[in-house]
Amino acid sequence: MKYIPVAASALLAATALALASWVGTVAMTLVVCGLSILIALGWPQLMGVSARRSLSTVIACAGVIAALGAGVVGAADDLFFWSSVALAFGVMSVFLIQVLRGTGRPHRLESTIGACAGVLIATTGAGWIAGLRYPVELADATGDDARGILAVRGLLPVEDTTLLAVTGASGELTVVTLAAGTLIVATLLAAVPLPHAWAMLLVVLGSTAAAIGMTLAWGELTLLFAGTLGLVAGLLLASFRRFLLAQGPPQGILSGIAVGAAPIAAMGALTYFTERLLLV
Questions:
Q1: Which domain holds residue 116?
Q2: Which of 102, 151, 197, 265 suits 37 as a labelling partner, its CA being 20 to 30 A distant?
Q3: Across residues 138-144, what is the average pLDDT?
């Protein structure tokens, strides 16, 4: 029962990202901004640090700036530029807050490390927007060459629709729906009460199979990409599950929401860079 907020937060965040990927960039940007704010509200409480209001503000601003930057840039090479800027200024702001608190304050080191980790996770959420925009809006060439020799066509008649297809409305490659759908499956599998070794195997294999299955059914992506994306999602969720069980359930609803949303946000950067590496 103590882990319900964590699982519910992760599941709802992944579902919201999947739905937003069908609507467009504006919806995705709003969802990522909301995700950053939720993480910011609960992260200082999760880490047990002081100066919670100021640190929450820094984390939220960093995540929102990174998301808005990814949503408005006009070149593919600049999609993660504002994430880097937000991360840098966020970390600087964290250190500035610690200086302004004065000497002799308790838990200064824990506050600094914990807040910097929160800034990092919040800014990686912009990868969801970058991943959505890169193939659909900003890539120079994402046709047959991008799909490669392992490309497969969908087996279902809904392949070319904008509602269920992994491919975008223009027929070009999009991957965020696939990534979000894989996270939904991985979250459900991570909630199965099994010993860690069996749970990790279940999550990793299940998410990989889910990614490949969705690609076979709806997409025009490569099997190599789908398998890699599923493997990354499974390892990420399994690692967070292990960390959570080792540390015990988070104290408070906001902490549970933050720790549940954190791996979902972090998957954004992993999705984007995997996309840039394997599909171009």
A1: 4-278
A2: 102
A3: 47
